[in-house]
UniProtKB/TrEMBL annotation:
Its EC number is 2.3.2.27. It is an enzyme of class 2 (transferase). It catalyses: S-ubiquitinyl-[E2 ubiquitin-conjugating enzyme]-L-cysteine + [acceptor protein]-L-lysine = [E2 ubiquitin-conjugating enzyme]-L-cysteine + N(6)-ubiquitinyl-[acceptor protein]-L-lysine. SMART domains: SPRY. The gene is RNF123. This is RING-type E3 ubiquitin transferase. It comes from the Eukaryota. InterPro entries: B30.2/SPRY (IPR001870), B30.2/SPRY_sf (IPR043136), ConA-like_dom_sf (IPR013320), RNF123/RKP/RSPRY1 (IPR045129), SPRY_dom (IPR003877), SPRY_RNF123 (IPR035773), TPR_RNF123/RKP (IPR057987). PANTHER family: E3 UBIQUITIN-PROTEIN LIGASE RNF123 (PTHR13363:SF5), RING FINGER AND SRY DOMAIN-CONTAINING (PTHR13363). Residues 75-255 form the B30.2/SPRY domain.
């Protein structure tokens, strides 16, 4: 081995061979002429001119060092030019961001002082080097596409939290977020940038101009006539808002888009580059030929066929090369410019198998001839450069750039020793390795080549009018356009699938558990890093910037599911007793045996420490898990640990450091990631106090956790188990099968996948639907514009011109959006992605079902399993249509039924204590019964479960959140009540249509089966109906009283002469109280319809009391709503935003339905009792009944007559009341016979 410090010293073996031929064949020792020819071929002159064999000096290993020194000699003039100060530039030769004084606001800066994240309103920072003459360039890698101003400024520019680069004299900036340029004033300039773009900032101080480029495409000259002269020097600078992040390249790495004539601010290491290129040529020469000592000749070989066979000649040659090459491969610039370029050339030149072989040869030689720390540093820089190239590559039609980078990544990671080092120390610790699984969405479809890939655009045509199903047949032209568009989408999808398959291959390498030769297998290293990754993101929720952006998490989730299912089914093939991935679930013992750390995530039963104390007996009896009382005590005292520094003291030191404008000498929390690659550990602030306090380090495990090891301490045996140890599955309850599902490590990966979906994937799936919504809005606008064009008179040429211009704008926008939508559907909402989410839903359902069987131990399950089950179903139903339908998925109806059973059972489960998850379950059930398919699923669950669900719904409202329960009962009734067949309130049909997918806007789908269960339960016992109805009447009294009080305040505010605004929150609460009142009335109507004897059979002890309470409330509602020129009437006529639902119709029709059921449809004796109770109530007024049928109240003496054109509410004019077949208007008219003095 070569010694890196002193001269060369090689150990030699003494070989005892019988003959020269055998010596040559076995050892590779060659004669002098062949050795000289070989060394001359390897160490050829830089000009590649072969010297004549007779004139060149013979080479051997004794004079090779001298020859190699001459070969690597760089001209002194070149060396001097690279070292001396360049004219036109002032400052350090290594250009970084000025973290000592050249900043304003609060910023987070990377360790390399090249990446920055904004952490205040509008922070600004400049570089340490300025220029005053010549042509200069630097690049900015855009990590987020928000508000930033990038450019140049002088040292005299003064910035603050409102004014940044470009807002002062002698500062110039480009803003790709708003597509403008800034120099005190602003004008339109350039193109919009997106995350993953590279902005080049060019300044020509000879001509006095400044320009920008985006991904190598010039945006044109931005500014001219720059101020120059004495004292005028320009610094690269940026101002960025909160959460935005970028990374600078001043020349420390090769520029991605160099421009001829412009020089980077930091000079490249030219001497090192020249030497590295020459050494690389020598290295490639070694790989391209072999020695044949028997024949005494050199044999040309393909690099992929080359083999290191232990020949001393080859080994000594390589040792001489790496003696000089190894130190150079520790330089960032050389790694990216030389080694990376060489490896990419290998990948691009041949098929993947040959390229992988060559890369393996290279890595083998690196590990053999370089010190470990040198190889590790080289690999780290190599992966950082590779990740940077992948992330900031432009999208091209065939995605060739991304494919080449991923193929090289696969080739490197398929090398076992390199993979384990990178996985242990780099991929999740230094890099955002999740970037490798992300496919960047193009913001500019023209540059991405989508116009060529999808030449014909198309978009679905939807009816703009809600409540009217406009079925229009497709024309032949539309059909041709749609089919051409679909063919383009398929071409795009196939290209994206190539990239996705490469990404899955990377994860398959990381999940390999067969490479345990000489250390831990890759899968178990990955599990440790993956768990920490989840912990950082779970603990950092709500904190910004997050470690992993949600768009990355979505792609990571799908690739991880593919790799996980591959290994799951592969294990099934080798172990027939295990399960297929289609039957996967997470066994319940993982949640309580402490083998998997769930950090501080909430369990269904509350805090883990509380559950361990209260359920320790159940753990012992059902799972054979014993808990030490001393450990329980330590767990309760964990928050009072004296070893931890008190929070005030921990926050004090950062304040002191920040007060002097310095950098914090504290490690940066792990959840704060670099905008590109590294980890920042400097908080820069001009404020006197810190806006952040460092959290407790994430890597520190909890002080006491029963039978738990931290992720770093676990071994393969701790996870997979052994003959006497079940590993992750220790504590198996009797309800669980004895045979394993699969490898335990895959169960932990599955658990992490479910957690990932809960962290941010679902929110991102909902966010991406916005592109489809934009298409629908523009399509409606285009259709309206075309209708106006057809109706516009030909003589109005001015209007026709404006409409034609609008039509063109809408068409161009739709062309752009339809191509973007094709990308989104292929990358996010494809059929395969839908199946992944569906598989995840079924995993959660099985996990919940198995956990439920454990009885009280179900409380240990993390809440996110129920959340993911609810949210994944919502995503499948709402996000993947209309291209893909959930009904097409296998086992669709069975899955709906299983989810319905879970919602029906657990929405009132006493084992679940968290308020948020209980509300989520209630809301999910309320949404579930709004749609016909899911409501039928509820009806398919076993009868005892349906009855138990209805019984829980009828429990007294005072004991739980009653409003949501009431919504569920109302939705079971909607479509059966009087005038209750509408989808949307009749008075809102002419207003702007709402999102038709909302549960409240679905067509009525009542359930007679569940209504019958409700009727049976109300008749069942003497206390069920009274307790339920009393709670309903109490809540109705409260809700309507609150509503009346609020509209009084609103009316008073509206009548004031001075300009005033009613709080929107107050309006929302007011509308909610009104809606609650209406829904409670509908529940009363349903109860009276199903079980009228509860009110009318006075043989029951509570019937008379309930009827009198009901009459009192009905009269109160009628009096408040039907009085002419009353408070309710005045507020309705105001039509305030937020009070759209407040109208006469919904509440009066609900009251009418109750009256009809009481006074018309009941038995004769019952209707007489109801009439007498209603008339006997002191609040009864006959005018209220008259008002329902359109008879206005006569004006009081001395008051003005109402306006003749004013319309009065009347059931006769209400379409939905007239068309009600079961409870028609004639039945209301029959009420006149019930009241004396009626005049109609």
């Amino acid at each position: 081995m070569a010694s890196k410090e002193g001269g060369m010293a090689f150990s030699r073996k003494s070989y005892k061979l019988t003959s020269d031929a055998e010596r040559s064949r076995v050892t590779g020792i060659v004669h002098e002429k062949l050795l000289s020819d070989y060394l001359h071929r390897v160490f050829a002159s830089p000009d590649h001119r072969p010297a004549a064999a007779t004139s060149r000096k013979p080479l051997n290993f004794q004079n090779l060092p001298e020859h190699l020194d001459q070969l690597l000699h760089v001209d002194d003039k070149e060396d001097e030019e690279s070292q001396e100060q360049v004219e036109g530039r002032l400052g350090p030769s290594t250009v970084v961001l000025d973290h000592t004084g050249g900043f304003e606001g609060l910023l987070l800066v990377d360790d390399d002082l090249l990446g920055v994240i904004g952490h205040s309103n509008f922070g600004t920072i400049r570089s340490t080097t300025c220029v005053y003459k010549g042509k200069w360039i630097y690049e900015v890698l855009i990590s987020s596409q928000g508000l930033m101003q990038i450019g140049w400024c002088t040292i005299n520019c003064r910035f603050n939290q409102e004014e940044g680069v470009g807002d002062t004299h002698n500062s110039y900036a480009y803003d790709g977020n708003r597509v403008r340029k800034w120099n005190v004033t602003t004008t339109n300039y350039g193109k919009a940038w997106a995350a993953g773009d590279i902005v080049s900032c060019l300044i020509d101080l000879d001509e006095g101009t400044l320009s920008f480029s985006l991904n190598g495409v010039s945006l044109g000259t931005a500014f001219e006539n720059l101020s120059r002269g004495l004292g005028m020097a320009y610094f690269p600078a940026i101002s960025l808002s909160f959460k935005e992040s970028v990374a600078f390249n001043f020349g420390s790495r090769p520029l991605r888009y160099p421009v001829a004539g412009y020089r980077p601010l930091q000079d490249p290491p030219s001497t090192s580059l020249v030497r590295a290129q020459r050494l690389l040529g020598c290295f490639r020469a070694v790989l391209s030929m072999e020695l044949d000592p028997v024949e005494g000749r050199l044999v040309e070989k393909e690099s992929s066929e080359w083999q290191l066979q232990g020949q001393p000649t080859v080994l000594l040659t390589l040792a001489h090369i790496f003696h000089h090459f190894a130190p150079l491969l520790c330089e960032v610039y050389v790694v990216e410019a030389v080694l990376m370029s060489f490896l990419l050339g290998v990948v691009e030149a041949g098929p993947p198998e040959q390229a992988q072989t060559v890369v393996h040869h290279v890595l083998d030689l690196l590990w053999l001839f370089m010190e470990d720390y040198e190889v590790q540093d080289c690999l780290k820089q190599l992966m950082m450069s590779l990740l940077r190239l992948y992330r900031f590559s432009p999208i091209v039609p065939d995605l060739s750039l991304q494919i080449h980078y991923l193929r090289l990544t696969i080739a490197i990671l398929s090398h076992e020793k390199s993979r384990k080092f990178l996985l242990s120390n780099v991929l999740f610790d230094v890099l955002r390795s999740v970037v490798f699984f992300y496919i960047k969405s193009p913001l500019r479809v023209e540059e991405a080549g989508l116009q060529e890939l999808i030449p014909t655009t198309w978009w679905p045509h939807r009816s703009p009018r809600e409540g009217k199903e406009e079925v229009r047949e497709e024309t032949s032209e539309e059909r041709l356009r749609r089919r051409a568009y679909e063919r383009g989408c398929q071409r795009l999808k196939k290209r994206i699938e190539v990239v996705e398959e490469l990404q899955v291959q990377i994860l398959k390498l990381l999940l390999n558990n067969k490479d345990n030769n000489g250390g831990e297998a890759s899968r178990y290293i990955f599990l440790t890093k993956f768990r920490k990754f989840l912990q950082e993101n779970a603990s950092g929720r709500g904190n910004t910037p997050m470690l992993c952006p949600p768009e990355y998490m979505v792609c990571f989730l799908h690739r991880l599911i593919s790799a996980l299912r591959f290994y799951w089914d592969e294990y099934k093939a080798s172990k027939p007793r295990t399960s297929f991935s289609e039957e996967a679930y997470v066994p319940p013992q993982i949640f309580y045996n402490g083998k998997v750390d769930y950090f501080d995530l909430q369990r269904l039963g509350g805090l883990l420490s509380h559950l361990r104390k209260t359920l320790k007996d159940d753990l012992a009896s059902k799972a054979n898990i014993l808990i030490d009382p001393m450990e329980l005590q330590a767990t309760t005292m964990d928050d009072l640990d004296e070893d931890e520094e008190p929070a005030p003291a921990a926050a004090q030191r950062p304040m002191q450091a920040l007060a002097v404008g310095g950098a914090l000498p504290l490690p940066r929390p792990g959840w704060l990631s670099s905008p590109t690659l590294g980890r920042a550990n400097r908080f820069l602030s001009t404020a006197a106090v810190s806006l952040m306090t460092p959290r407790r380090p994430l890597s520190a495990s909890e002080k006491v956790k029963v039978r738990t090891l931290s992720a770093e301490q676990r071994t393969r045996e701790d996870i997979e188990g052994s003959q006497w140890n079940e590993g992750l599955l220790v504590g198996r309850p009797p309800e669980e099968p004895e045979h394993p599902l699969t490898e335990n490590s895959l169960l932990e990966v599955l658990d992490g996948v479910v957690m990932m979906y809960n962290l941010s994937v679902h929110q991102q799936l909902g966010k991406m639907v916005g592109v489809s919504d934009d298409v629908n809005e523009y399509a409606m606008a285009l259709r309206d514009t075309e209708d106006k064009l057809r109706r516009c008179p030909k003589r109005r040429k001015d209007i026709l011109a404006e409409l034609s211009k609008s039509q063109k704008v809408f068409s161009e926008k739709l062309d752009h959006l339809s191509r973007r939508l094709a990308w989104v559907h292929a990358a996010v909402y494809s059929q395969e992605k839908m199946q992944d989410i569906y598989w995840l839903l079924r995993v959660c359902l099985r996990t919940i079902e198995h956990g439920d069987r454990t009885g009280s131990l179900f409380a240990f399950m993390p809440e996110f399993y129920l959340s993911v089950a609810i949210n994944s179903y919502s995503a499948l139903k709402n996000y993947f249509g209309p291209v893909h339908s959930m009904e097409e998925l296998p086992g669709y109806e069975e899955t709906l039924t299983r989810l319905a059973a879970i919602l029906a059972k657990h929405f009132a489960d006493t084992r679940i204590v968290g308020t948020d998850i209980r509300d989520s379950l209630m809301q999910a059930l309320a949404s579930y019964v709004c749609y016909p398919n899911s409501l039928r699923a509820v009806e398919r669950i076993p009868e005892e479960q349906r009855i138990a669900m209805v019984r829980n719904l009828l429990a007294p409202y005072e004991q739980r959140p009653w409003a949501q329960t009431n919504w569920i009962l109302v939705r079971l009734w909607r479509g059966c009540g009087f005038g209750y067949r509408y989808t949307r309130l009749p008075h809102l049909l002419k207003t702007k249509p709402e999102d038709a997918s909302l549960p409240s806007l679905q067509k009525p789908c009542p359930s007679t089966l569940l209504q019958q269960h409700m009727a049976d339960l109300l008749r069942e016992g003497p206390d069920v109906a009274p307790s339920f109805l009393n709670s309903v009447l109490n809540q109705l009294n409260w809700a309507f009283s609150e509503f009346i009080g609020m509209i009084q305040e609103i009316q008073q505010a509206a009548e004031r002469l001075e300009r005033n605004f009613v709080d929107s929150r107050q309006l929302k609460v007011c509308a909610t109280c009104f809606d609650l009142s209406v829904s409670l009335l509908r529940v009363l109507e349903m109860t009276i319809t199903l079980v009228p004897e509860i009110f009318l059979d006075w043989a029951r002890p509570t019937s008379e009391m309930l009827l009198r309470r009901l009459a009192q409330l009905l009269n109160q509602v009628l009096n408040r709503v039907t009085a002419e020129r009353n408070l309710f009437d005045r507020v309705v006529t105001l039509r305030l935003p937020g009070l759209e639902s407040v109208d006469h119709y919904p509440i009066l029709v609900a009251v009418t339905g109750i009256l009809v059921r009481l006074l018309v449809h009941g038995p004769a004796s019952g209707t007489e009792r109801a009439t007498s109770v209603l008339l006997a109530d002191p609040c009864f007024q006959l005018r209220s009944i008259s008002y329902l049928l359109g008879q206005p109240e006569p004006p009081a003496p001395g008051t003005a007559l109402p306006a003749p054109d004013r319309k009065h509410f009347s059931l006769q004019s209400c379409k939905w009341a007239r068309e009600d077949r079961d409870l028609g208007l004639g039945q209301v008219i029959r009420l006149k016979n019930k009241f004396p003095g009626w005049k109609y």
